[in-house]
Structures are given as C-alpha cells and as structure tokens.
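Thread: quick sanity check before group meeting

JM: Hey all, I'm pulling together slides for Thursday and realized we never actually wrote out the predicted structure for the chain we discussed last week. Dropping the sequence here so it's in one place. If anyone has concerns about the input, flag it before I start.
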Amino acid sequence: MSSPEEPPVHGGVNLEQLSNSPPEQLDPPLSKNKLKKLMRDRKWEEGREKRRELRKIKAKERKARKRAARDSNAPSEPTSEKRKASVEPEVNPGKKSKHLKSVQVPVSFVIDCDFDELMRDGERTSLASQVTRSYSENHKAPFRSHLFISSFGGNLKQRFDTVLSASHHNWKGVKFLESDFESAMSQAAEVMKTDGGGRLAGAFGKYETKEEAEATSTSGEVVYLTSDSPETLTELKPYSTYIIGGIVDKNRHKGICYKRALNRGMKTAKLPIGDYMKMTSRFVLATNHVVEIMLRWLELGDWGKAFIEVIPQRKGGVLRDGIAVLDKLPGTTTQDEEVDEGASGQNQEGEVTPLENDAGEVSEKGLPREGLEPNAESQP
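JM (edit): ok, ran it. Output follows.
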C-alpha cells in the first residue's frame, strides 16, 4: 500500500498548511515578511509549468510568423541577375560584417564565489544574476577570455540547479569548479598553454614579433582585483589570470577580498577608475561590470572608453579633464556589432541562455527585464 503524498515543505514550513491558514493562527516564529516570501515562492513554483508552456507557445508563434514572412517575400522564380548574384555575391570591403566570430585571447578571469555564508538570500540572487551576465558578456565579446567560476557550491549552486533549471550545463567556454580560486588559477595556466589557449589579438595585438609573443607566454601574472588594494592595474597582460571577488554584501564586510588575497600571499590591484574618472560614489562595482570593463579593454586597449561605456550612470562617473578615448583599435569590431560565437559559443545553434533578473525571473529573449538592484555591488 502506497504512502500518502507528503505536503510540500519549504524551509521547515508546511506550505499547504500555510496557504490554508490565516497568519494569526500560525506559530509566531516567522515574521510577516517571511510568510509573504514563502507564499510568493510557492506561487512561483506552482506556475512553473504554465510559464514553460507559455514560452513554448510563443516560440512556435514567432517561428510561424518568420516562416510566413519568408514565404510572402520569396520570389517564385529568381531572375538571371539574382542567380548570378547568389553565385557571386557582391563584396563591399567598406561595410563591416555583423556576424564576426569571437576571438579567444590568452587571458583568464576567475570569479571567486567562496562567500556564500556571508550573503543573504536576495544577495545570492543578485550574485547568480551577475555570474550569468558575466558569462553572457564574455560569450558575445569580440575578444573573449577563459572564464572560471570557483567555489561553486552551496546556495548559489542550488539556485542554478533549481530556479535556473541547470541551464549553466549548456554554457560553453566556462568552467564551474567546486574547488577554490587557487585550483582555478592552476587550470587557467594550463589551458592558456594549449593550442586552444588563444591568440594575441585585440589589445594584445601589439605583441607582434615571435620573440615578444614567447616572452609574454612565460611572464603571465596572477592578480586578485579588489578596490581596497594600494596597487593600480595599468593594463591586462597575456597569459595572466585575474580574480574577481563574487560577493554582494552592501559593503557589510569591508576589505574582505583584499584580506583574503593577502592571507594567500596573492598580488592585488584595483582597476584604474580614479585615474580616468571622477565619481560621485564609491569605486566598487558589480562582478559583471568588472568583467565587462576588462572585456572592453581587451577590445579597445583604452580604460577611459571602457569605464564610460560600462559604469552605470547612477554612479555619476565622468572622464577627468584631458582624458581622451579611442573609438576602437584598428581591425576590431565595436560593441554594437553582433558577434557570432560559432563553435565556442553557448551552443552550436546560436541559442542564448535566458538571463535571470533579481526577482528570479527569466526573460524570453535572453535579456534581463530589470537591471541589477542599485546597491548590489561586489568587490572588483
């Protein structure tokens, strides 16, 4: 005889009893805000299948509309001129391609997520969103890095496996490690030495001669980025690894990334924000903003341009007097141009993993419905 189905339990609370009982009849250990949160969680879980079916329906409708548009615009019989054009396409060297492949360069970014116990639930949600966006930015960047997520476990991993439907298993060009950032450093050094480690392009294109390239392959550095460091990062170097603290704490744990690096005997540095920008707020950025700034530097070789394009306007940042910026390095694309990742993209069909916003929702087109919460910042 089968046992009766057990009622759903969340955080030690019987959700079925919770939904059928008024708040005043429940045991008082939980606050009203906690009860409301549990109810919202339950409603969200109950609507999961419905949302999935709705997304499928909308996807089919989009495909049908695109198919109908193609059929209505397709000529019944191509003319002789069009046949010739299909065989010998017109080449316009002055027009930029919007489907250029992303170039792997020999540099690695590590997001250190070993701060799970120091964050609250909402902060872990923000960190999951920032990790997702960091991957997305690296995935579509003209010059991409090797990306590692270290100390991937606890509540952060649980969120990826459940709320985000384990979509990170389909990500390409990124490694999730349960071990800490030192293990990621070692793996990054080995990966950059392989044939697929990347080529010197973008801002690294200045290392033109064979001698210079060989010299850089043995002089890579490992730097833990933190705004509390007395040292300033002047440029990214090939075959180097840069570690970013994956923590959202509203500045409760001041200097934690800097202390963590010092305890491990690590070299530290901060981004040169103060050298290029006048800010009306602290020089502390979200994890994904730090990643995006460095990706823009790999493309442009210009910190000022990277800061202006990435740092949120709410921080009130403006370039210092006398600072000029480059539009782009010769031979590179701009950020407005769409990049086709190809075999190294998220998947070989070019699909994009939906991004999660801070409310735990996933947008249809892979873009967050809302930005990061205003004060969800981590240590760069």
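AS: nice. The longest strand covers residues 103-112. The first helix runs from residue 15 to 20.
JM: adding both to the slides.
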